[in-house]
Amino acid sequence: MKEMYKKKTVMTFTQGRQFKVKLRGKMQANGYWSLYLEYYLGVKKMDDGSSCPQRRFEFLDIHIKDKPTNPNERKEKNDMLALAMEIRENRQKEIQYGQEGIINPKRRQVNFIDYFQQFHDNYQNKDIRIVRYCLKYFKQFVGESYIAPHEITEDFLRRFKVYLDEHLNGETPHNYFTKMKKVVKQAYNDKILISNTGENIPNTRNEGLKKDILSLEEIQRLALAECGNEEIKRAFLFSLNTGLRFCDIKELRWQNVYDDRVVIKSQKKTGKPVYIDLNQNAKKILEVPNGEYDEFVFQLPSLTGCLKTLKSWTRNAGIKKNITWHSARHSIAVNMLTLGTDIKTVSGILGHAGLKHTEKYTRIVDELKKKAVNSLPNIKIS
């Protein structure tokens, strides 16, 4: 490929008004050209009436030697230059397809499962576990190793939402489908999908019973039942008496434990420190030889390992409900409200920023009361 012209330390490999993307090179001190793409974005009118061309740059991390000295170096230069030219051509096509409102045919061949996996791998937020499990159920729903982007229709997504509702409890389907809509929107922005097919699908929360609630009688049975891991048993019972999430329990250190309370430096949702008063049960659980100041209070395995133990433990206690770690948080809220604790106090214990999130538990209490009334035996009245 022939270099068109040189000017100082910048080289242009493509020229002509037809190119919206040009391949350029900048000379480095080591005698190599560092290749980059220059995008022409049009002309912007300035306040003084003048015009200013708008450009942006993409560095390719491709370097070619200015003056090869042997056949191997010349071949390497030609190969790298050909690669850069191919990248430039693909970027040019992307712009042309976008101007016509058409998705690049190469993008239509993308495996959406692979795209979802890449979305997960690049996800940086703390709620990545929701993305991970959403991907897991998406794969189960598809039942295949490949699905084309054009198959991600609104009807497809509605059926996936129904699948989540049928296989999961409480707010979990809502949380997973929220992430699914986010993946679809990103795929649309990345020109993988021709439209944001999840945009108009409502995703209302399930306001019925969330995860299964443990009654006070069931908590007592659980405390007396054999558990395969005593550390998990102590930690879960501590959650049942404090309302702390698994992430807070796992990160709790002795330096955060005081005589009558624990301090959670920063909860995941609010980002604010929360002070949890300890009842007699919680204090009893902590009646073990204190560890070092910066050691963890509970030595726990992964959440997956804890849930596996929790499942067998509840089975040993004769409890047939689907209990997860978050059930402890729901249980303390419902049980306290049932015992007459005011909603503001419960909200403070759970570390909620306001009463809105706590009000959902009052509806659960009302449902339990209604269920209890309806479970009374029929009475024959003469």
Describe this structure in words.
The chain has 382 residues and is of the alpha+beta class. The protein folds into three domains: 5-99, no CATH class; 108-189; 216-374, Intergrase catalytic core (hpI Integrase, Chain A, Orthogonal Bundle). 47% of the residues lie in helices and 13% in strands. Strands 1-2-3-4-5 form a five-stranded antiparallel sheet. β2 and β3 (21-27) form a beta hairpin. 23% of the residues are buried.
Short description:
The protein is of the alpha+beta class and 382 residues long. 47% of the residues lie in helices and 13% in strands.
Uncertain regions spanning at least 5 consecutive residues: 1-7
> What's the count of strands?
7
- CATH overall fold name of the largest domain: hpI Integrase, Chain A
Per CATH, the class of the largest domain reads Mainly Alpha
Q: In what range is the share of β-strand residues?
A: 5-15%
Number of domains as seen in the coordinates? 3
